[in-house]
Amino acid sequence: MRITGGNAARRILKVPRGLDVRPTPDLVKQAVFNSLGALVEGAKVLELFAGSGALSLECLSRGAVSAMCIEKSYKHANFIQQNASSIADANLQTRTQDVFTAVAQLAQNGAQFDLILADPPYGEKNVGRRSESFAQRLLDDKNLPKILAPGGRFVLGHTKRDTLELVAPWREAKMLKHGDTVMRFLEV
């Protein structure tokens, strides 16, 4: 896995072994960042379920001013720090805690981000019932819209077999599909 664009393009990133992390594929990352375009430049970025931190590091490589990664696993957070240290001037902060706890704390502190990225572990197929996946839980979280700056975007990844219910105040600006992956570009 590597950074696909910007000043750190082609830099190889370390990823934890095993099935605990499912990195966003490079082709999907390229499509996402091509769609975001200039929104990344100068942005304050928050990555939820960060895994290796690849999406945040991609943002920093493409001109974001800062990034914060939220990752529950200490092991994975170590990989994020290693990857960040290999990129000059990476203004990246890692918080090792549960995503929903972190989002509540950030909202309470009045934090705001121009770009929020999340490609959480995939949920199960949910035909005939409401999704219980992490992606749906993010959409349902009342604190998440509070930390998205006016004019900002929330990019949410999920599997196409996980049918999500878009709830207020979220509005879909765009959707990308690639294989089993769906990336939704949301705004409030």
Describe this structure in words.
The mean pLDDT is 90. Helix content is 26%, strand content 25%. A hairpin with a 2-residue loop joins strand 6 and strand 7 (181-187). The protein has 5 helices and 7 strands. A 7-stranded mixed β-sheet has the order 3-2-1-4-5-7-6, covered by helices on one side. The longest helix has 12 residues, at 74-85. It has 188 residues and is an alpha/beta fold.
Quickly count the helices.
5
Q: What integer is the average pLDDT?
A: 90
What portion of residues is helical?
Answer: 25-40%
Radius of gyration: 15 Å
Write the H/E string, N to C.
HEHEHEHEHEEE
Quaternary structure state of the chains depicted: single chain
Low-confidence stretches: none
Compact overview of the structure:
The protein is of the alpha/beta class.
Secondary-structure map with pairings?
Blueprint (H helix, E strand, L loop, with lengths): L25 H11 L7 E5 L5 H8 L4 E5 L3 H12 L6 E4 L3 H10 L4 E6 L15 H7 L7 E12 L11 E8 L2 E7 L1
Parallel strand pairs: 1-2, 1-4, 2-3, 4-5
Antiparallel strand pairs: 5-7, 6-7
